[in-house]
Design goal:
The complex is a heterodimer of chains A (649) and B (121). Chain A has 649 residues and is of the alpha+beta class. Helix content of chain A is 39%, strand content 23%. Chain A has 18 helices and 23 strands. Chain B has a single domain, classed as 3-Layer(aba) Sandwich (Rossmann fold), CATH 3.40.50.2300. The mean pLDDT of chain B is 91. The chains are: A alpha+beta (649), B alpha/beta (121).
């Protein structure tokens, strides 16, 4: 029987990456100071696991590297090695080298240049080469068989038991200890030669002898010794009576024995290509559309039996859709986990002191959405560090703590997920942005004030940057533009809040899934539009009592809030009728970030799952629509980019 | 003949999968898995497997403490330690804590089965 390591390659890579995440997290914790015991033991464990897995895979260079790191960590753990800053740096560099080695073909025989460099650095700071030698690849050289003279200093009562271990014994010291221990169960082991301590420490197979005071039979003693494993030879000397046995034949499960009972256990995970899940999602999308058509058809052909079957089929389609969407959901930590390291590196490169906090790691998002949103978050984090958070000296002068606080959070909000990047830095410099905007002719000469939304639109323009010094980290405002474009393409929206001297918060609102979203269907004139529930808070009937006018503009008074009102007819430029009520008119309360407003529609048709067909209009800063969908009757409808509706208000 | 049951304890899926494959091919029924020492103890009490394979280095109660707990609960528990090179002292400690045998990573299936045979023998 043999195992083919290639079967395990994928598992190895996935799990090693998880271990690397743990390693980076622990390194960051260590660097922050505080109690080192827990992060060190996490590090040690993770490194140990990587070592074990790589050795099993035959990736000896990686295993050896991990072993060296483990040795250093062990010394730190025991207090023999101080955790100086340059050791931390060397450890970070080592973690990077390990990651690269694991990512790119670990089979290569030698160590990568990065590994060699990292090891050198580690040795430089940790003082000389690590103490424990890596046992290395399981080469065929079977280790020197040390024949300890079995002199008999074992004079005294009892029987003498002589043992020689198998040449290929693994951890022979432990085996020897076990042999002595097993014999102890039969009587008193009066003496051991060499000493038990020496035996235990032996790294090579060894011969040894013990004197045992016992009433057990020769067979029992031999059996006990053999049960310790890796025994090549055992001899029990009972007052001149000796009995020899040839090489041990430890029972091995015979090849022919009934060993084929593959007991199926079903709690294992199966890894599925994301492309297949996408294909499944597309098919479900088509099925959802077809279901809509069928439901309409059956409604117009009343037949109880058909109707019942149709309802059943419709429910099954819903269940199937839920199942598939659930399969695609992953917790955000899968992407968030790499940020602490990124923040650390950026902060160091810019000489900033940053405390990074991640909240809501367990919140789940559709896999493809999560993959797409990673990059925008990186932009936001880098902007916060590069432009938001001040230098320690500047912060101290402003009476703030020297370390800036950067918070990345994820939270579920009904049909949406909110991702927020928040810093307590200097805030965006409005006068400077305005000055630039005036110079570029983006705003009127007289403009002296700008609210958060307008400010956001300005900084989201390519080329408008306030960065005094362009670092390779945050570019020139390209980041914000990219965040905006990407988020809208995903059916989401971005909101900015900034207060001079206090900090900046950017909130990304995203649908939970990409392909099928729940939407309100609304009619305006003869057209139907889909409003994704991601941005819908509630709906209410258009009622003269709730609509008032402030400075000539209609507003909605909802509980204690006064919300601006928009008419969908104006929005889509139908301008068919003056702003007014009507028999079926309703108000949809939409929201983005913390802002709300009311959208008046001619009629609400209902709520349904729509299959999003994306198009590129979201690239245009003024686009009102994020995509299109096919309705149950086969007609197309545009999907409103609700977030963009706030930009005119 | 009823397949002997085994509980596999290791914090790495990779290792669990490999041990599980080796033992299943040898006719064992894997009745449970554990990722931490605490889980191992809990599952042992619940499943009473014929054999336990136990990693030494695990979060939330290491393998050695888990062996101690399991042996306290059932002195006849058959626990096979899964160790790595260079863990001599820890393996000795595990044996003292009640483990019946050990195997060394990287695993060779034949060695694992030899050890299993000795433990169950």
């Amino acid at each position: 029987m043999s195992l083919d390591p290639s079967r395990y390659a994928e598992l190895f890579r996935t799990e090693s990456r998880e271990q690397l995440s743990a390693i980076n997290r622990a390194l960051l914790l260590l660097e922050q100071g505080g109690d080192a015991a827990e992060p060190i033991s996490v590090l040690f464990r993770a490194m140990h696991t990587v070592k074990g897995m790589s050795a099993t895979m035959g990736y000896h260079a990686v295993a050896e590297f991990a072993h060296e790191l483990e040795s250093v960590l062990d010394r730190v753990r025991r207090g023999d090695q101080l955790l100086a800053p340059d050791l931390m740096d060397a450890l970070f560099a080592s973690a990077d080298a390990l990651e690269t080695a694991i990512d790119e073909g670990s089979e290569q025989a030698g160590q990568t240049p990065a590994m060699v460099a990292a090891l050198q650095r580690l040795r430089d700071v940790a003082g000389g080469s690590s103490t424990s030698e890596f046992p290395g690849a399981p080469t065929k050289e079977t280790g020197a068989l040390v024949e300890v003279a079995v002199a008999d200093p074992l004079d005294g009562p009892g029987v003498i038991v002589r043992v020689r271990q198998a040449a290929d014994a693994m951890l022979p010291g432990v085996r020897a200890f076990m042999a002595v221990q097993r014999v102890r169960a039969l009587g008193e082991v009066a003496a051991v030669n060499p000493s038990l301590d020496a035996l235990q420490a032996s790294a090579v197979p060894i011969s040894f002898a013990m004197r045992v005071v016992t009433t057990a039979s020769v067979d029992e003693i031999e059996h006990a010794v053999r049960s310790a494993g890796d025994v090549a030879f055992v001899e029990v000397d009972v007052s001149g009576r000796t009995r020899r046995e040839s090489r041990s034949t430890i029972a091995v499960v015979a090849e022919g024995e009934e060993v084929t009972r593959a007991s199926a256990r079903s709690t294992r995970h199966v890894r599925i290509d994301l492309a297949r899940l996408d294909a499944l999602m597309n098919l479900i999308g088509e099925l959802v559309i077809t279901r809509g058509r069928l439901l309409q058809l059956t409604a117009s052909n009343p037949d109880p039996a058909l109707d019942e079957s149709m309802q059943m089929a419709a429910r099954l389609v819903s269940d199937l859709q839920t199942e598939i969407m659930t399969m695609r959901m992953v917790p955000v930590w899968q992407v968030f986990d790499r940020f602490p390291r990124l923040v650390r590196d950026s902060a160091r490169a810019l000489n900033k002191d940053v405390t990074f906090v991640v909240e809501g790691k367990e919140i789940e998002l559709d896999r493809s959405l999560l993959d797409e949103i990673g990059e925008p978050i990186v932009h936001l984090l880098r902007n916060a560090i590069g432009h938001g958070i001040e230098s320690p000296a500047e912060r101290a002068a402003a009476g703030k703590p020297r370390a800036g606080r950067l918070v990345l959070s994820a939270a579920r909000d009904r049909a949406a997920v909110l991702i927020r990047v928040s810093d307590d830095g200097r805030g965006i410099d409005r006068p400077r942005v305005l000055a630039r905007a005036r110079a570029l002719g983006l705003v009127d000469e007289g403009t002296r004030e700008v609210d958060d939304d307008a400010l956001f639109r300005l900084i989201a323009r390519p080329g408008l940057s306030t960065a005094e010094q362009v670092s390779d980290l945050s570019g020139r405002g390209v980041g914000i533009d990219a965040v905006q474009v990407k988020t809208r393409a995903l059916g989401g929206s971005v909101e900015l809040k900034t207060v001079a001297g206090e900090g900046t918060t950017i909130t990304i609102r995203l649908p939970i899934t990409l392909a099928i979203v729940r939407a309100l269907l609304a009619r305006s004139g003869t057209e139907r539009y889909a409003l994704p529930l991601t941005h819908v808070r509630e709906t209410l009937e258009y009622d003269r009592d709730v609509v008032q006018h402030v400075k000539g503009k209609p507003v909605l008074v909802l509980r204690d809030e006064v919300l601006p009102l928009l008419d969908l007819r104006d929005v889509v430029r139908q301008r068919a009728a003056p702003f007014a009520g009507g028999p079926n008119r309703e108000i949809v309360v939409i929201e983005r970030g913390d802002r709300k407003s009311g959208l008046v529609v001619d009629e609400l048709i209902g709520q349904q799952d729509i299959v999003v067909k994306q198009f590129d209009a979201a690239r245009d800063g003024l686009a009102l629509f994020s995509g299109a969908t096919i309705l149950a009757d086969g007609a197309p409808a545009l999907i409103m980019d609700v977030g963009s509706l706030f930009e005119g208000t | 003949m009823v397949a002997p049951t085994v509980l596999i304890c290791d914090d790495a899926i990779f290792m669990r999968t490999m041990v599980s494959d080796i033992l299943q091919q040898a006719g064992f029924e894997v009745v449970g898995e554990a990722e931490t020492g605490a889980q191992a103890v809990e599952r042992y009490k619940q499943l009473r497997p014929d054999l336990v394979t136990m990693d030494i280095v695990m979060p939330d109660m290491g393998g050695i403490d888990a062996v101690r707990e399991i042996t306290k609960f059932d002195p006849d528990a058959k626990v096979l330690m899964c160790s790595a090179m260079g863990q001599q002292a820890l393996v000795v400690e595990a044996i003292q804590a009640g483990a019946k045998d050990f195997v060394v990573k990287p695993f060779q299936p034949s060695r694992v089965l030899e050890a299993v045979q000795r433990v169950l023998g």
